[in-house]
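Ops channel
N.P.: pipeline sanity check, posting one input/output pair.
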């Protein structure tokens, strides 16, 4: 076909006004004409089947058309109606009559011959040259025709050629259309799929330019929106093998939504073949070419077409067109036999006497006929024909304007109607911007495309096989992004596959929040895997490609779709462990206070005097402070509590051990004073007070340096537990903490050694042995404390420290004071000088020494 087009183009091409073209081969495609000052042409397929008559090869073969096309006749009559309406308009083309030449052809070869005949310069045959050409309905034919028209600069305006390929002005510079490009239909179909979340679809298309280009672009645009095509199968009317492959795929595929991108003739064939296969469970989405054709409906196709959905040209009203179509009579066009042929088809009659059919009178009423031609309620495509004729008229109107000898649009010299040339009309079509009488706006972008507006329609099949095609929404490219597609709130949508809900058509269900989407390289992007987010991460969106880590102070919920503040943990008075430790602290305070009262009430008794009552009372006070300081470790850490707990603990414990050390030194001094010849300075009360003060002040100095340089502070520990926060007191300076603790340990160790040296004093009065046991307990507790403290988690760290304080405090209280309290309360007979002195002179000396000091 390509070589044929080139040859015809060369024959038809003219580069000057003085050259004409000569037609070779079959002619006579002109069917309807009207004289006028300016002519427009039209190419239509009033018949859709071409047959060849070879004349037994005794004469030149020729082809002829059969199988009359009702819709194309409707288009032709719309051209006639519009031309008459324009000629009645005294404002649009005043003083100028518009005429037409309408040609009929079928099949690519005849249609191109008809186009050659339409643009030829044989004025004797045609009555004048056309200034613009209307048609064709098919994108492929329009493409071939424009190749012929482009060298002649004759504008071509199509009403139904939707292929996006025709927008290429480099290839088709004279092509315009009043129907939206398939590019916009494709974008609308993609948005429709996205709106209903149909991510996994199939495509069945006809092997035509219209469908090939449309499906190819749909796949590209769909991938941009994350929509995948499970299969793309071509449909051929004559290929049984391909038809069976389609049926097999429809039955085995998992996609529930199928896009039927076909021209009208192909969809009729496809549906007729599918009737016998009982294909169910699919939701069909149709292309604009067939989605509003009610004559496709039948009882057999009820299950197939029920719920079919697609975009259609806007449903509009053209005043007077319906009456004009239905008022047609064969006598209106006596110069052509086509109307009679259609008439015989409509009424199943014949204008020639026949035994097989009724005789046509020509007076039959078309209103009694149900066909595509008589359907005057659906003028979607006819509106584009209507706009195409008006487009040429407005371009002529702009061309013939004259102000002071100059055309106001182009600035060129004015022309009259006899000087009009196609190239001039082409130039003015580019700038046309008007509104028709029925409110339709017409203007073009740089590609010669008009504004895209579609109705979203839905098929409702009735039990009797009839169909209602309801408008359920709109798609308008002039609206902002995200608002181009809008469904009607009152839309009653019927779904395919007898479904009562929106069909789910996905390869893999979307990954819910709390999981991440992982693409499988061996499958389409719509077929993916979902993995649960790792510990500590979340995804709060569907199909999230990654999981996001929560910040340190937050932790995922159980669904892993939200980061929640981590629960805080600290040793509280409300906890069982905290309550028990608080109770033990209170018990310790009570026992220390009780011991203090016992010693105070019996301070004149020998056992109290012999135990250095002043250091004993100071030791009891410091023990009460030790028990009380453990309470500062319980509760929510604050800046003051953190500084207080460590410094109070360090100072009170040094005070305790200093008192114990003083008592130990007193015992040792008393022992050494018994050896004759030794002039030993006795360790009196002044020395005892001074030693306690000095030793305690050293610890106070450590604490002051610690607090001034890097004090303890409240901190949130997020490292030990991932799912919760430990509120604790950070040490600040670790050196300060271990210096305070080490100083306590050093004094305790020194006290233990001195007490151990005095452990073998006579049994009747041996406080050193009791001090030895208390220091042994103290040292053991704090030696064990260090590794346990370092390894204990969270609030147990604080509990271990409190336990060490309480254990060591109870150890000193029990070991040093309980035996004496026992004697004072339960064995008062032993609380006397005689019992304390015993049999040795040593005890007497020691007793006197203690009393003295």
């Amino acid at each position: 076909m390509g070589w044929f087009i080139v040859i015809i183009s060369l024959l038809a091409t003219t580069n000057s006004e003085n050259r004409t073209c000569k037609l070779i081969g079959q002619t006579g495609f002109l069917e309807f004409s009207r004289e006028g000052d300016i002519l427009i042409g039209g190419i239509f397929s009033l018949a859709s089947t071409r047959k060849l008559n070879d004349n037994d090869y005794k004469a030149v073969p020729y082809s002829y058309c059969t199988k009359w096309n009702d819709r194309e006749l409707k288009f032709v009559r719309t051209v006639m109606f519009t031309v008459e309406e324009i000629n009645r308009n005294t404002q649009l083309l005043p003083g100028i009559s518009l005429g037409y030449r309408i040609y009929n052809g079928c099949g690519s070869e005849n249609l191109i011959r008809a186009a050659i005949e339409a643009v030829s310069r044989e004025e004797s045959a045609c009555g004048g040259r056309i200034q613009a050409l209307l048609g064709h309905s098919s994108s492929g034919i329009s493409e071939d025709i424009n190749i012929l028209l482009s060298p002649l600069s004759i504008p071509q305006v199509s009403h139904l050629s939707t292929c996006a390929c025709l927008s290429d002005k480099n290839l088709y510079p004279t092509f315009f259309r009043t129907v939206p490009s398939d590019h916009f239909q494709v974008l609308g179909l993609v948005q429709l799929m996205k709106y209903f979340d149909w991510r996994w679809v199939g495509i069945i298309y006809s092997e035509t330019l219209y469908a090939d280009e449309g499906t190819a672009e749909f796949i590209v645009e769909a991938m941009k929106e994350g929509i995948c095509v499970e299969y793309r199968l071509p449909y051929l009317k004559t290929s049984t093998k391909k038809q069976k492959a389609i049926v097999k795929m429809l039955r085995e595929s998992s996609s529930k939504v199928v896009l039927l991108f076909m021209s009208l003739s192909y969809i009729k064939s496809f549906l007729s073949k599918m009737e016998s296969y009982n294909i169910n469970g699919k939701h069909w989405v149709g292309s604009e070419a067939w989605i509003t054709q009610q004559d496709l409906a039948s009882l057999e196709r009820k299950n197939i077409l029920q719920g079919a959905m697609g975009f259609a040209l806007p449903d509009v009203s053209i005043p007077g067109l319906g009456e004009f179509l239905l008022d047609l009579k064969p006598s209106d066009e006596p110069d052509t036999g086509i109307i009679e042929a259609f008439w015989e088809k409509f009424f199943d009659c014949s204008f020639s006497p026949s035994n097989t059919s009724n005789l046509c009178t020509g007076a039959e009423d078309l209103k009694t006929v149900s066909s595509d031609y008589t359907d005057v309620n659906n003028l979607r495509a006819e509106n584009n024909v209507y706009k195409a004729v008006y487009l040429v008229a407005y371009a002529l109107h702009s061309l013939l304007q004259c102000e002071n000898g100059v055309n106001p649009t182009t600035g060129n010299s004015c022309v009259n109607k006899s000087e009009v040339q196609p190239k001039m009309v082409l130039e003015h079509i580019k700038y046309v911007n008007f509104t028709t009488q029925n409110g339709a706006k017409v203007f073009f972008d740089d590609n010669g495309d008009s504004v895209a507006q579609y109705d979203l329609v839905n098929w409702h099949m009735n039990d009797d096989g009839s169909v209602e095609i309801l408008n359920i929404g709109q798609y308008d490219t002039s609206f902002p992004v995200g608002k181009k597609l809008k469904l009607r709130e009152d839309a009653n949508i019927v779904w395919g596959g007898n479904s009562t809900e929106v069909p789910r058509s996905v390869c893999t269900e979307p990954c819910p929040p709390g999981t991440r989407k992982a693409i499988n390289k061996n499958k389409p992007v719509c077929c993916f895997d979902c993995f649960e987010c790792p510990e500590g991460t979340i995804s709060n969106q569907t199909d999230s490609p990654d999981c996001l880590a929560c910040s340190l102070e937050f932790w995922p919920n159980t669904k892993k779709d939200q980061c929640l503040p981590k629960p805080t943990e600290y040793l509280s008075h409300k906890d069982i462990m905290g309550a028990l430790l608080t109770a033990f602290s209170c018990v310790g305070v009570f026992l220390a206070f009780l011991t203090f009262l016992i010693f105070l009430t019996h301070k004149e008794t020998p056992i109290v005097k012999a135990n250095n009552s002043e250091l004993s009372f100071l030791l009891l006070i410091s023990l009460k402070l030790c028990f009380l300081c453990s309470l500062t470790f319980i509760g929510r850490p604050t800046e003051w509590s953190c500084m207080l707990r460590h410094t109070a603990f360090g100072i009170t414990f040094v005070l305790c051990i200093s008192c114990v050390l003083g008592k130990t030194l007193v015992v040792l001094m008393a022992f050494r004073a018994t050896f004759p010849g030794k002039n030993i300075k006795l360790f009196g009360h002044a020395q005892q007070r001074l030693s306690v003060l000095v030793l305690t002040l050293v610890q106070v100095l450590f604490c002051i340096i610690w607090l001034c340089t890097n004090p303890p502070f409240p901190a949130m520990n997020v490292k030990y537990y991932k799912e919760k926060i430990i509120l604790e007191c950070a040490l600040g300076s670790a050196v300060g903490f271990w210096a305070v603790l080490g100083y306590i340990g050093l004094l305790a160790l020194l006290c233990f050694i001195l007490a151990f040296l005095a452990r073998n004093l006579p049994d009747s009065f041996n406080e050193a042995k009791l001090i030895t046991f208390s220091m042994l307990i103290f040292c053991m507790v704090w030696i064990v404390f260090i590794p346990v403290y370092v390894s204990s988690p969270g609030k147990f760290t604080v509990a271990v420290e409190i336990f060490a304080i309480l254990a060591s405090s109870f150890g000193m209280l029990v070991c040093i004071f309980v035996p004496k309290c026992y004697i004072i309360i339960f064995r008062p007979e032993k609380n006397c000088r005689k019992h304390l002195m015993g049999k040795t002179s040593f005890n007497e000396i020691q007793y006197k020494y203690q009393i003295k000091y």
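N.P.: looks fine end to end. Confidence is low (pLDDT under 50) at residues 1-20, 675-680, 839-853.
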